[in-house]
From TrEMBL:
UniProt similarity note: Belongs to the myoviridae tail sheath protein family.
Protein known as: Phage tail sheath protein
Stored InterPro entries: Phage_sheath_subtilisin (IPR035089), Tail_sheath_C (IPR020287), Tail_sheath_structural (IPR052042)
Organism: Amantichitinum ursilacus
Domain Tail sheath protein C-terminal: 513-617
PANTHER family referenced in this protein's UniProt entry, alphabetically: PHAGE TAIL SHEATH PROTEIN, PTHR35861
Domain Tail sheath protein subtilisin-like: 348-505
Pfam families: Phage_sheath_1, Phage_sheath_1C
Length: 625
């Protein structure tokens, strides 16, 4: 009810509907990991086209199976992918910036690897305070990325401290200050000088007699001149300003040694406190501003020289050097691709990615890598597409692979055989033998968009765009030895061309009788799990009783009913197709006491028609009896 009812009349209030709409997540965001000639190392880069890949990683490369896989992914209908460049080891490019005497800043590339050698850092003094601050611009010529940071200081107490403004903001470089502590302590006291003035000064009057002075970044003191006495001469004015500042800042130590002086027609204000934090600023008066007529402050023709100005880097342009990487070899495969979760290397670079659905490691068939990769996609509610080993050329070789221990026996992965031939733009269209995972991932994406994640990415409409031939042309009988083992075949047929002709997971062997035998069933379950996980966060900390359970049933039921109407489930009616249950039978009083609410969501999956059996029978003529 309204918060306060205090007068007779009509009150209006808005009530919540209790509906928290659940939105289905994306189903075909792919992630690729592999070698590339350039680009950031161990960083998941978001791509929306192959042009994005070319700009970041250098495009197609004969030694990069990933480059061809990403290209095939987008050609076959993929719309978004992440690419991770992996190497055995990488060093970071860097460059020191000097003030002419010592190195004061170290500029390091954010991303390790040789791409950092294309970064050039440029310092200039075209700032609002040209006598104290500097600008830093960085350009990465490899992809023409440009960043500019203006009005920087090396005073760590300054609001424009370079490290605070650059680090964590720049996508190209990080800074570290390399000035010894003894040098910082020995920096001279800061000053601010006016422009050249007449003696006695002109322009001081009842409407131009105030300004403010701030020392070492502290709260300013107002100077209110007593005219005409304080303006009788520049010397008298300097003496008066010193007195006014000290009187206005009585008891504040940072102002105790402040001093104003006049020499050669120039007023000079000196902090009196040396070291890194020393600074003097003149600010406009609050009422009768005199800073302008006295030419105080850089905006009025003066010069503010902070102590930290002495450690500014000189105006220069300098390339970063020393970046490089060591490509992985067969012995380095596990360390390069699995990496270290703590520092997010290898596939764990995907820890920085909110959502991905498909993982491809083009050409990688190392059992250690695949086992860890499938464990990771299971944790992330994603799916691993595996290439058949390139040594498994004939069906008999692949049968040995499927019956051995080289591949993970998981419903969160599927293997595709054989490898494919595509036209290689780097060799004027000559055929190149390539891993099929990128092509298959693009097919998954196209099928999801056209038919839904519950449709098997296989059949006569599952054409493989860009595939000119297969490394082995399977016959029906040969596929008959592979399909019962859970190996998905790529086939060529007249008219239809190259197509995907299998839809089983690596738990799809007939002998396993697994619930998630088929790729679309597993991927539909992953879609439901991820969507419901994200769509029920609002339930946490709500009162755990029947009103909450009713809301849960309403919201999840609406989501499941939408999918039913789209044809995602088996069954003629919602009752046949799915179940959402959340009540006192799923959540007991003991569950409530432990803070638990249990929700049961069941669905009847659509399974693909793998075998079409047509019975032909003669219809005998009718006998007259």
């Amino acid at each position: 009810m309204p918060a306060t009812l205090n007068y007779p009349g009509v009150y209006i209030q808005e009530l919540g509907s209790g509906v928290a709409t659940i939105t289905g997540v994306a189903t075909s965001i792919a992630a690729f990991a592999g070698a590339a000639p350039m680009g950031p190392v161990n960083k998941a880069v978001d791509l929306f086209s192959f042009a994005d890949y070319e700009r970041t990683f250098g495009g197609l490369d004969a030694d990069s199976e990933m480059s061809y896989a990403v290209r095939q992914f987008f050609q076959n209908g993929g719309t978004e992918a992440f690419a991770i460049r992996v190497v055995k080891s990488a060093t970071t490019a860097s460059a020191p910036l000097s003030n002419g005497t010592i190195d004061v800043l170290q500029v390091n590339a954010v991303d390790a690897g040789s791409a950092g050698n294309s970064v050039v850092a440029t310092v200039d003094y075209g700032t609002a305070l040209p006598s104290s601050t500097f600008n830093l611009s960085v350009v990465r010529t490899a992809d023409n990325a440009v960043e500019t940071f203006n009005n920087l200081s090396l005073n760590s107490a300054d609001a424009r401290y370079a490290l605070d403004l650059v680090n964590g903001v720049s996508q190209i470089v990080q800074l570290s200050r390399t000035v010894p502590a003894a040098t910082l302590t020995a920096l001279p006291a800061a000053t601010t000088r006016s422009g050249t003035l007449a003696d006695p000064p002109v322009g001081l009057n009842a409407t131009h007699k105030e300004f403010q002075v701030s020392v070492n970044g502290k709260a300013p003191v107002t100077v209110d001149l007593t005219l005409p006495a304080d303006g009788a001469s520049l010397a008298a004015l300097a003496t008066a300003i010193t007195a006014h500042v000290k009187a206005g800042a009585a008891g504040r130590n940072e102002y105790a040694l402040f001093e104003a002086s006049a020499t050669g027609g120039v007023l000079t204000f000196k902090s009196g406190v040396a070291g890194e934090f020393s600074s003097v600023r003149v600010l406009p008066g609050l009422a009768n501003n005199a800073a302008g007529v006295l030419k105080l402050g850089s905006e009025n023709g003066g010069a503010d020289v902070d102590a930290a100005a002495g450690i500014r880097p000189t105006a220069t342009a300098k390339f970063l050097t020393g970046g490089g990487e060591v490509p992985y070899a067969a012995a380095d495969m596990y360390g390069a691709f699995i990496g270290d979760r703590a520092v997010r290397t290898g596939i764990y670079a995907l820890e920085s990615v909110d959502l991905f659905n498909l993982l491809c490691l083009p050409g990688i068939t190392d059992s250690g890598v695949l086992n860890d990769a499938v464990a990771y996609v299971q944790e992330r509610r994603a799916f691993l597409i595996i290439d058949a080993p390139p040594t498994s050329i004939k069906p008999a070789d692949m049968v040995a692979t499927m019956t051995g221990t080289a591949l993970p026996k998981s419903s969160f992965a599927a293997v595709y055989y054989p490898w494919i031939y595509i036209a290689d733009p780097l060799k004027n269209g000559k055929l190149r033998l390539s891993a099929p995972c990128g092509t298959v991932a693009g097919l998954f994406a196209r099928t999801d968009a056209d038919r839904g994640v519950w449709k098997a990415p296989a059949g006569t409409e599952a054409s493989l765009v860009g595939v000119q031939a297969l490394s082995y042309a399977l016959t029906d009988r040969e596929q008959g030895t592979l399909n019962p083992l859970g190996c998905n075949a790529l086939r060529t047929f007249p008219v239809f061309g190259a197509v995907s002709w299998g839809a089983r997971t690596l738990r799809g062997a007939d002998q396993m009788t697994d619930d998630y035998k088929y790729v679309p069933v597993r991927r539909l379950a992953l879609f439901l799990e991820e969507s419901l996980y994200r769509g029920t966060q609002w339930v946490v900390f709500e009162p755990n009783d029947e009103p909450l359970w009713a809301q849960i049933r309403l919201n999840l039921g609406a989501f499941m009913n939408t999918l039913f109407r789209q044809g995602a489930f088996q069954g003629k009616t919602p009752r046949d197709a799915y179940l959402v249950k959340c009540d006192s039978t799923t959540t007991t009083q003991n569950d409530i006491n432990r803070g638990v609410v249990n929700i049961l969501v069941a669905f009847a999956p659509l399974k693909p028609a793998e075998f079409v059996v047509i019975s032909i029978q003669q219809l005998a003529g009718q006998l007259q009896v």
